[in-house]
Amino acid sequence: MNLSVVKTQFLLLLVFFFSACTKIVTTDIGTGLIPPVDSVNTKEMYLDIVSKNKADTITRVGTGDDHSLGYVNDPLFGQTTATINVQLKPTSFPFYFPSAKDSLSIDSAILILSYKGVWGDSTRQLAFRVYEILSDGAPLDVNLRADTVYPTTHLVRRGSELTENKIPRYVYPTKLDDSVKPDPLFEQASNQLRIKLDKSYGDRLLHNFDSTGAYKNDSLFDIAFKGYQIVPEAIGNSLLRINLLDTNTKLAIYFKYPGDSGKLVAGVRYFRCNQYTCGSTNYILHNRTGKEVKSFLPPVSDGKLNDSLIFIDANPGIYARLQIPELDSGKLSNMIIHRAEILMEQVPDLTYNSDAYLTSPNLFIAAFNKDSSRRFALPNDVQLSSGYISNQSMFGCYPSTKKDPFSDRPISKYSFDISRYVQGIITRHEKSYPLILYGPSVRDFVYATETSPIQLFTGVISPTNAYVPLNAPASGRVRLGGASNSTHKMKLHIVYSDL
Q1: What is the enclosing helix (H) or strand (E) of 238?
Q2: Cis previous bond, 316, omega within 30
Q3: Which of 422, 367, 373, 414 is nearest to 395 (CA)?
Q4: Closest CA relative to residue 158, chosen from 283, 285, 288, 286
């Protein structure tokens, strides 16, 4: 027989043999990094997960954190209304205008907010009104405090409306990054949300405040004026990300006064947000009434062992509790874990197609101590650095995209690598914990261990050492398949070898 024919037949036989006994593992880390499953040396298994939706969490948003502002009407999750309350003050006291108050005339007063981005449908208009926070001569302890980080449920009393002519300011989020030059004598700026206030309020700033002594010092200013409340109308479908300490955020008071030649001269003064003297809140309200999510939340779902759909939105939002009973049982024999991953997939919204613009958040899984209600870093798989967690990407916090074989639509998927955690349970008989699945936003920390007093930031650290959260407040949501879902089942996938 021809030698070349023999070689060809031998190669074909090898190809047939390996294709018959080798299955490529579906995992995001690549087949080159773990052994292929051959059912002899390397095996795989899937363990069931118990998954339950839990109630909305509450988070705290500090003055230096990005705030959310806007309105979302989500066909799956319900309505979200995000309001900002903030103090803006003269940069120093005593404060003066460049001329006597009787010679000042108001041109305009504009509340300007620094725009940092948008989540949701940016092609639809949003609308905003500005109100004065109720000021009735009450003592200072009812003011917003610069030394307090308020929860997103903190209510602030609303006073009179300040919006020009009491007509809301309509904006397209796609236009907010345009460059504007409101006055040739002053600034050219971009990434601003500008809301014109009524001239009567501008007159009050020029004339009446001075008569109350409010410009003499910070305490008197706090008594005279408590701050601004920026409230969205129930239109649009997006949340703006607003930074209050950025130089773009300010109250601009444009006025005229007589110059040395007797002619009127244009002037401007700015009130700004100072982290040491100004307070703020980000009041975020979810209304789940009449939406699909409502039937999956306690107390409605309390009688179920598993929820077929898991709803997660960025804090303040819904979280889920996960449990892996077979890890708790101690029945798994000793083995080498090559890969253990919690797999979860988005269940697409086929009715409204809202997933196209109400995109998925970054997620986090923490271990949970029932007795102390303490969330802490998952042992062995979460890498700890100086005050923060450093391996969000490898751990699996960020979603990737795949084509859903059932709907032929793009969906988000997550793969949380808990290999070392599972190995510790199986070989070293370490403790198995209930898990918390949620979408962290600002000021989200977990403890380093079950008993450690040290807390770690779940977001990332920027090159300038700034804390960057995994999500902006309430910005991001995803409907996942739960452990009892028939098409998008949440599960623990393990690739292992027997010892």
Answers
A1: strand 238-243
A2: yes
A3: 414
A4: 283
Amino acid letter, 387: G
- In order, the DSSP letters of 245-291 are SSTT-EEEEEEEEE-TTSSEEEEEEEEE--TTT--EEEEEEEE-TTS
- 145 and 240, same structural domain? yes
Q: Residue 3 domain-assigned?
A: no
Q: Note the pLDDT tens digit of each residue in 121-177.
A: 999 999 999 999 986 555 545 679 999 999 999 999 999 999 999 999 999 999 998
Question: Do 148 and 243 share a domain, yes or no?
Answer: yes
Task: Report the pLDDT averaged over residues 320-346.
Answer: 92
Q: Which of 230, 255, 286 marks a domain boundary?
A: 286
Per the structure, the complete domain to which residue 99 belongs is given by 78-286
Looking at the fold, whether 260 and 141 belong to one and the same domain comes out as yes
pLDDT confidence of 259, banded at 50, 70, 90?
Answer: confident
Query: Which one of 269, 286, 303 terminates a domain?
Result: 286
d(CA 223, CA 393) in angstroms, rounded, equals 48
Those residues with Cβ within 8 angstroms of residue 115's Cβ, 6 or more apart along the chain or in another chain: 176, 177, 191, 192, 193, 240, 241, 242, 248
Claim to verify: residue 326 and residue 411 sit in the same structural domain? yes
Question: Would you state the structure tokens that stand for residue 348, as one six-digit string?
Answer: 């697409």
Asked if 267 and 392 sit in the same domain, the reply is no
The pair of structure tokens assigned to 378 is 């998952």
Residue 344 CB: number of other CB atoms within 10 A? 30
Strand (E) or helix (H) holding 419: helix 419-427
Q: Which of these, 466, 235, 203, 427, lies nearest to 336 by C-alpha position? A: 427
What is the torsion angle, in degrees rounded to the nearest 10, for the CA atoms of residue 305, residue 311, residue 317 and residue 322? 40
CA dist., res. 330 & res. 87, Å (int) = 56
Half-sphere exposure of 498 (CA within 13 A, CB side): 8
